[in-house]
Amino acid sequence: MSDAVGRRVRTIAGLLVLAELVVFVLVAAWIGVGWTILATLATSALGWILLARQGTRALADLRERARTRRSPGAELGNAGLVAAGGLLMVLPGFIGDVVGLLCLLPGTRNLVRGILTRLVLTRLPAGLRPPVRVESVRTAEVPRTDDRGPGTTDAPPRVIEGEVVRGPDGRPPA
Question: Is residue 135 part of a domain?
Fold first, then answer.
C-alpha cells in the first residue's frame, strides 16, 4: 500500500471514530449516559443475533449453490455483506450500527450492494472495468469502382460480433 493510500485510510478511519464519538456524546446528552451505554450494549446484542440468523441463511445459500454446482453470484456478496454488517453491529457506535443494520437486513442489502458496486466501478481504471458488449450490423461487400483491377471488391471492414476481451497484460487489445 502506497504512503498516500495509507494516509488516506488513516484519515478516514480517524474521521469515522471522531464522528462516532460525537454521536455518542450527543446521544448521551439527550437520553443520559446510562441509557446510552445500555443502548450500545443492546445494539451489540442485536448485532450478534442478526449475524447468527442472517449468517446461517447466507451460508446455507452458498452451500446450496455449491451442491448444485451453480455460480455463487449474489449469495457470495450476501455472505460478505452479512459479515461486514455483523462486525459493524457488534462494534460500539451508532453510525456503524445503522450501516451494519442496512447490510444485515435482506430488504436493504440490495441497496447497499448497488451503492458499493457503483462506488467501486467509478474508481476502477477504464481497463479494469467490466467488458463492453457491442451490437453490430453486418455489412455487404461493395464492388470497387477504381483502377485496382477487375473482379476486386472494395469491402468495408467486416464486423465480427463478440465482446471485448483483455489481453494477457490486462489491457484491451489495441
Answer: no
Query: CA 15 to CA 9: how far, in whole Å?
Result: 10
- Asked whether the beta carbons of 98 and 104 are under 8 A apart, the reply is no
Residue 160 has φ and ψ, to the nearest 5°, of -110, 125
Q: What's the pLDDT at 139?
A: 47
Q: How confident is the model at residue 21 (pLDDT cuts 50, 70, 90)?
A: very high
Q: Locate 23 and state its grid cell.
A: 454521536
Element housing 154 (H / E): none
Is position 148 within any domain?
Answer: no
Quote the number of domains for the chain: 1
Q: How many Cα neighbours within 13 Å face the side chain of 46? A: 18
- Domain span at 44: 3-128
Residue 69 has pLDDT above 50, yes or no: yes
- pTM comes to 0.64
